[in-house]
Aminotransferase
Amino acid sequence: MKIAGFGVEEWLNKWEKSATYDISQSTIASMTMKEALSLDGQDGEEFYKILDQQKMNYGWIEGSPEFKKEVSKLYRHIRPDNILQTNGATGANHLALYALIEPGDHVISEYPSYQQLYDIPKSLGADVDYWSIHEDQNWYPDIAELKALMRPNTKMICLNNANNPTGTLLDEAFLKQVVALAKQSGAYVLVDEVYMPLVDSERFVSIADLYEKGIATNSLSKTYSMPGIRVGWTASNAEIADLFRKYRDYTMICCGVFNDAMAVCILKHRDQVLARNRKLVVNNLKIYQQWLDHEPRASVVMPQAVSTSFPKLTIPDDIEDFCVRLLKEQGVLLVPGTRFDMPGNVRLGYCADESTLREGLKRLSVFLRQYD
Ligand SMILES: Cc1ncc(COP(=O)(O)O)c(C=O)c1O
């Protein structure tokens, strides 16, 4: 099976450990174990007491009942039975695609977005069409273009809502138009929902609540600041969940007793985690906006309180060379837009801790002055 290299991951694997000011990432500043375990006010005392007695067997294969119950609360209509725990959202996307896509299937994927959503179906032998997003349309794709791409046998439409790298949220009215088109061919709609807006989050609607053949994938890695525990999930109808169970047994078994316990802790204290992160996002957005107001070589379609953004940089140099020199000379890491096939832009993750963001932006501006 052939597959393209994963552009963003290859870039981060090579450079992220050499960054002093990493403003390339899309997670909202990760929590420490101490921070996570202090959410219940007991500094982990109860957590470790239970865990100390816990056998490190496989635990709950699909995720513990508590985990499933907490996750199902994130949806309007999804029952705990229809939540399956996975190794991150990456594992969830892989599971959905592996279970449903066969050679010759027609798949339409939002582009650019998370590379799994087009290169895994391609590697499985699907015929993949790109549904492009447009900077001059607030990074929305165009419904008329989707209509033109649809075929009577379209098997799946893949979206990333909100989008990585742009931070754009597709609203309910728009998603309903996608669903109406999907219904014409009976296509599944797979939506990677790891980025939820932290302000006015009720604007976000899960595809699993909108469409019978909607599959939502998600995790605790971005909005919930815990990528280290590698816990994600799929949310779908019962029939699709049963199909996923079959494929899941071959690829992962479970996520581990410890990771499940941590995930339950985070989900049970969801309101506190979201309050922490809302504060960070709102504060950092202000800093980011102030920087943009004074930086003539950068412009951006503002992300919608989602932890990733995709500014355009007006520079004469190759963007990869620029990013490597920026890192070597100023210690600042960005992801060049080439990793999303858009060389005019960079991914800028403004949800690092405040001091990293401030110094990172300051140094980026110092570096940009070479072109004045
Ligand atoms: C859209 C999207 N989905 C999934 C992931 C990976 O998520 P996880 O850490 O849960 O596997 C990322 C990470 O960058 C992402 O941007």
Observations:
- The longest strand covers residues 127-134.
- Residues 26, 88-90, 114, 160, 164, 192, 194, 219, 221, 227, 232 surround pyridoxal-5'-phosphate (CB under 6 Å).
